[in-house]
Each structure stands twice: as C-alpha cells, then as structure tokens.
Amino acid sequence: MLVLSRKQTETIKIGDSITITVVKSNGPVRLGVEAPPDVRVVRSELDNRGGGSSTNAPASPDVKGFASPEQARQAMDEADQHFLDDTTPA
Fold first, then answer.
1. In this structure, is residue 44 part of a structural domain?
2. Count of the separate structural domains present in the chain
3. Cβ 70 vs Cβ 76: under 8 Å
4. What is the pLDDT of residues 26-67, one digit of tens each?
5. Burial of residue 72 (number of CB atoms within 10 Å: 0-12, 13-18, 19+)
6. Which residues constitute the domain of residue 59?
7. CA distances from 43 to 46, 57, 85, 88 (A)
8. Contact 3, 9 (CB under 8 A)
9. How many whole angstroms separate alpha carbon 51 and alpha carbon 82?
C-alpha cells in the first residue's frame, strides 16, 4: 500500500485517467474522484463484490456523475449539510 500526504485541493493521479482530489481536510477527509465512466468507483462498505463487510451499511445517496471538481464539492457540501441537519439536536 502506498501512503501519501496531501493538503486540501492537492491531487493524486492514478494512471492517465484517474484523479483524486482532497476536497476537505479538516474534520472528516473528503475526496473527489474523477474517473472515466467505465471505471467503477464505490465506497468499500457498499461494494457488493466482496471488499466491504458491512451488511448494515446505510443507504447510499444517488450516484451522480460530476463534470467538474466544483460540482463534486457542491454535492459533498450539500450532503454534509443534510447530515448536520439530521444530527443537530433540536
């Protein structure tokens, strides 16, 4: 396993067609993945092919293809806000 340190907005390239961007690094780390449409990108706990072992994994949001890192950041910010709205005591 290769372990790398990256700061917010820095990227990692895998081959010629996959880019991983650190979108948020304070608190839980948020990563943006840009990959060709034929490359399957999924969190390990949602992978039905083996890799993940959680049978009680929460329902995943709709899978969306993003045209840019900005669209991915906006979607992640919206997901964070939804999570905070659900967990903030009334």
1. yes
2. 1
3. no
4. 888 899 999 998 888 888 887 776 544 444 444 444 445 566
5. buried
6. 11-87
7. 6, 10, 23, 25
8. no
9. 28
* pLDDT at residue 85 greater than cutoff 80: no
Q: Encoding tokens for residue 2?
A: 């290769």
Beta carbons within 8 Å of 13's beta carbon, 6+ residues apart? 19, 20
Tokens of 26: 């304070």
- Asked if residues 6 and 22 have their Cβ atoms less than 8 Å apart, the reply is yes
The answer to whether residue 1 sits within a structural domain is no
The greatest distance separating any two alpha carbons of the chain, rounded to the nearest whole angstrom, comes to 48
Which H, E and C letters describe the chain, residue by residue? CCCCCCCCCCEEEECCCEEEEEEECCCCCEEEEECCCCCCCCCHHHCCCCCCCCCCCCCCCCCCCCCCHHHHHHHHHHHHHHHHHHHCCC
